Amino acid sequence: MRIFGVDPGSAHTGYGCIDTSGSRYQVLVCGAISPSKKRAFPEKLLEIRDGLIALLREYQPEIVAIEDIFYARNAQSALKLGHVRGVAMLAAAEAALPVVEYSPTEVKRAVVGYGRAEKKQVQAMVMLLLGLQKPPEKLDVSDALAVAICHAHSSRPADLAKVLHDNGGVGRNWRRYRPHRGGN
Predict the structure, then answer these.
(1) Residue 145, domain CATH
(2) Is 17 within a domain?
(3) Helix runs in the chain, H state only
(4) What is the pLDDT of residues 14-62, one digit of tens each?
């Protein structure tokens, strides 16, 4: 399965695309889209969208996994993050790809085993799981790869396909999935 992970941010939107056969992972691409600080916010959103669309077109993932919003103390920061997440979802929708979302706690638990792990711990486990020789240059990049790994650890493809179909192509949380138990 080819999974494209996104860690949204208005300063740096991390991305990472991995291939997995279930027990092994291969990184196809990772990096960050970092719009100029001098640009207006709508222009930053357009740059992020265009960058993601180009990457999705080039790497042809089967699904896009996006980190959900954390509860920020600063409402303005949370609002900007919500805009960037919306742009990432729009890029996935334009590429006709299903989207799943994972909270930061879910990602940390799936990758590190502890939902309150520090970003450096997540980065270290991402390096270990992906066999990287050096850490990604930005924590946003290791976070995006962690989101992709989280999805690889937590999804069952047949069940996920049903969830996405039933929810119009958007998976909210794999833990809330309940298989159909026969009958009508």
Answers:
(1) 3.30.420.10
(2) yes
(3) 41-59, 75-94, 104-111, 119-130, 139-154, 157-166
(4) 999 999 987 789 999 999 999 999 999 999 999 999 999 999 999 999 9
Which one of the listed residues 68, 101, 140, 143 is annotated catalytic?
Answer: 140
Catalytic residue among 43, 67, 68, 137: 67
Largest CA distance in the chain: 58
> Does 7 participate in catalysis according to the annotation?
yes
CA torsion 43→54→68→77, rounded to 10°? -20
**Catalytic residue check, 106:** no
Instruction: Judge whether 158 lies within some domain.
Output: yes
Q: Domain tally for the chain?
A: 1
Q: What is the pTM assigned to this prediction? A: 0.84
pLDDT single digits (tens) 70-93: 666 788 888 899 999 999 999 999
Q: How many CB atoms lie within 10 A of CB 102?
A: 26
Residue 89 tokens, joined: 């979802």
The CA angle 168-171-176, to the nearest 5 degrees, is: 120
Domain extent at residue 125: 2-176
Domain membership of residue 184 (yes or no) is: no
182 in any annotated domain? no
8 Å CB contact between 59 and 28: yes
Tokens of 141: 């990049």
Identify residue 152 by its one-letter amino acid code.
A
Could you confirm whether 140 is annotated as catalytic?
A: yes
